[in-house]
Amino acid sequence: MVDKKYEAIWIQRNSGKVDGLATLFNLDKFKLESAKKIDLDEAFEELGITHEMYPDEARKKHKLGLITHLSLVQSPKDHILVVNSHNHHNPHGDVIKYAEIGHLLNETNKELERIRSEFSTDRISVIMAGDYNSRPESATYRLLKHQLPLDLPSINYELDIEALSDPQLAAQLLVQRRKNLGLYEHIANKVKVNKTFMKFESAY
């Protein structure tokens, strides 16, 4: 790492967890402008989801996001935001992942606005990476891809459920999805739209 002149930005998970997130970059090509830790447990409060809407005991998963702001050494007016995250894994917690991503997108938009203001530029690229624990058919993946409030009633939430090999789990998830439909809509309407996200490649 030292020979290749790489630098690593690493953050540790909350509640004494030993793992975390890291973003690495080449110092010959990029200059570190800032790095921001995003506590994904704050998603429910930030998105206005009350304890009555979703049980308190299911809200805290100690997951993180990391937004790293880089500028190009050879072209200082060009900026990159690297948005890295590790999201909830349990298929029973699909709405949790959806809220985590909604919160992460809003924090990314805040960083975009800050860079525009501080550096007087619109030359900003966004790279989103990490472990989303979501299938391409999921609402979470669609929120990432489309970057806008979704027409939720038209989304077939059964697509990824039907792909499961466990019929009992599939039936349980289907009941949960229908129960939480209002939550998906609430979260989607809280996510800010930003046209900077122009290109999306499969990453799940």
Structural notes for this entry:
The protein is α+β, with helices and mostly antiparallel strands and 204 residues long. The protein is built from six helices and six strands; from the N terminus they run βββαββαβαααα. The protein has helices at residues 43-46, 94-119, 139-146, 158-162, 167-179, 181-188; strands at residues 6-12, 20-26, 30-39, 64-72, 79-86, 124-131. The longest helix has 26 residues, at 94-119. It is elongated. The relative contact order is 0.15.
Describe the structure concisely for a colleague.
With 204 residues, this protein is an alpha+beta fold.
Task: Supply database-style keywords.
Deoxyribonuclease I, Chain A, two-stranded antiparallel sheet, 204 residues, 6 helices, single chain, alpha+beta
Write the layout of secondary structure elements.
Elements lengths: L5 E7 L7 E7 L3 E10 L3 H4 L17 E9 L6 E8 L7 H26 L4 E8 L7 H8 L11 H5 L4 H13 L1 H8 L16
Parallel strand pairs: 5-6
Antiparallel strand pairs: 1-2, 3-4, 4-5
Helix pairs in contact: 2-3, 2-6
CATH superfamily annotation: Endonuclease/exonuclease/phosphatase
> Mind summarizing the main beta sheet?
4 strands, mixed
How do the SSEs run, as a string of H and E? EEEHEEHEHHHH
Number of domains: 1
